[in-house]
Amino acid sequence: MEPDKPYIYPLQGQHTHTFIMLHGRGGNGAEFCEQLFWSVTSQMKNLPDSFPNFRWVFPSSDIRFSTMSQEQEQSWFDVYSLTDPDTQPELQVEGLRESVLKILDILNDEIELVGDPRRVFLGGISQGMATALWTFLCAPGRIKGPLGGVVGFCGWLPFAEPAETLIQRQQAEKLLRQYSISGTTLLSESSRLDKRLQLSKLFLDTIAGPDVHQVTEDTDISVLSTPVFLSHGADDRRVSVRLFRRALHILQDVGISAEWQEFAGAEAGGHWIKQPEGIEQIVEFIQRQL
Fold first, then answer.
1. Where is the Phospholipase/carboxylesterase/thioesterase domain (predicted)?
2. DSSP assignment of 6-22, as one string?
């Protein structure tokens, strides 16, 4: 089925910035927009009230078969288990490839509209956060320059296990160099790449296909300097905070600076943004980037 066009929230002022927000599994762009904008700060302002010159773009994922629910539903990619996303990771590849390419195209369209990648933000909740992080990490070679910011909540990072293996290899190679026992034959070819670019290469190789770009040591990686803000409920019953912490540590270990917050007592069994402080944290993060 052809995906719906992104839902665009009515602009309240002159268009200066864009925020692309990705819904979770089983949702769609319009529904997520309505739910998100019901959440307000202590001054009873939602995100469009706080940023009237932002264009709010809510893409919808394709409808695909869900191994978890054993039915067709809207999702960015299939996943066998949210308890252990590393199980049967091959199920995730096709959806991640399609969704990452789709969101990269939307990012480039919005960058062209506003004229500067720093005026475009990307975010998502749950599986939308997972997809946003993957899109961000696969952006070198497609986007030149940092975005305004990446925001994620209540989510995780797909293919965390091979990412952690990569980081362990990076740490081992650092020790080899430190003690001058490396020798060109002991180090992998990819070890000469920036650590962040190595992670990008890992993910791009994972979803490799005729439409997927590749990266080299000459690839512009300035997009990976984008500021990142992540938050998660410590009592989230749908996506364990353990998976959030794992994603955060991977980003930090490869040198991506990420602000983060944990909270408790949010709606939906902890699988939502805590009001009002969670919305205020997002507002404050965006304001610091303007």
1. 10-161
2. PEEEPP-S---EEEEEE
User: Which positions ≥6 away from 145 have C-beta within 8 Å?
Assistant: 116, 117, 118, 222, 223
Give the max Cα distance, the chain.
61
pLDDT tens for each residue of 57-97 = 999 999 999 998 888 999 999 999 888 899 999 999 999 99
The helix (H) or strand (E) run that includes residue 127 is helix 127-137
Q: Which strand (E) or helix (H) includes residue 165?
A: helix 160-178
Give me 95's structure tokens. 């959806």
Q: Give tens-digit pLDDT for 125-139.
A: 999 999 999 999 999
Which residues partner with 164 through β-bridges?
none
Q: CA-CA distance, 4 to 24, in Å (whole number)?
A: 15
pLDDT exceeds 70 at position 18: yes
- Determine the Cα–Cα distance for residues 263 and 190; give it in Å rounded to an integer: 38
* pLDDT, tens only, 145-195: 999 999 999 999 999 999 999 998 887 777 666 665 544 444 454 555 688
pLDDT at residue 183, rounded to an integer: 47
CB proximity list for 11: less than 8 A, separation 6 or greater: 53, 54, 55
Q: Nearest 10 degrees: CA dihedral of 164, 198, 91, 84?
A: 20
Structural tokens at position 13:
């002022």
Give the span between the Cα atoms of 113 and 105, in whole angstroms.
13
Do residues 74 and 28 touch, judged by C-beta distance below 8 A?
A: yes
Residue type, 275: Q
CATH topology of domain 7-159+195-289: Rossmann fold (3.40.50)
The confidence band for 209, taking pLDDT boundaries of 50, 70 and 90, is: very high
